[in-house]
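Hi everyone,

Forwarding the result from last night's run.
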Amino acid sequence: MDKLVVQYLVFGMDRSWRFLDEEEKVRYREEFKSSLKDEDITTYTYSLTGLKPQCDALLWRISKSLESLQNSTSRMLRTNFGKYMNLKYIMTGLTRPSQYVKKPTTQEQGMLVPDRKKYIIVYPFTKTSEWYLLKKETRQGMMNEHIVVGRKFPEVRQLLAYSFGIDDQEFIVAYETDDLWTFQDLVMALRETDARRYTLKDTPIFTGIYRSVEELIEILG
């Protein structure tokens, strides 16, 4: 597996943006679109408007370099459009092979393929201290149950990024799906596994709708 930095950036638009002259908005939108173009970064854009208070968009970005992501964010915030962006949440993690899955299927890390599904669900995840004090064999047994449940829903892609030591959460959990009911079935099934009792934190949850940059900008007003 390639060593990649995964970042989810959530922002809301300042109310004053909607009162700008339309000609100004057109110029600012084009400037914003240009700021996202970076050969070192893959960016996917999602709309959150109406789905989370004070949150309007989620940018999922993948790079081989943390510096590239920082430079990109700085460039974006320096645009005229960026003056109206209020950063609400940033989660950063690294890709690594799972310590519990010996033979990963295309479902695990499946979100790294170039085509996108309709919806993304992203949240920070941290386990309790008790989890890490369990014997490796005990943890593996519970994760085996977790994995069996997850693989009953092959149409739901997943991507796990590791944030140990570099961000507030331990993991960033992300799912892609074309059907929210199927995804909810998966979540409800996972709630009944033994590993669930060792979850310390798994909120806030961001559910976004995949949009092209042009569509996202239109929805932002």
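The radius of gyration is 18 Å.

Cheers,
N.
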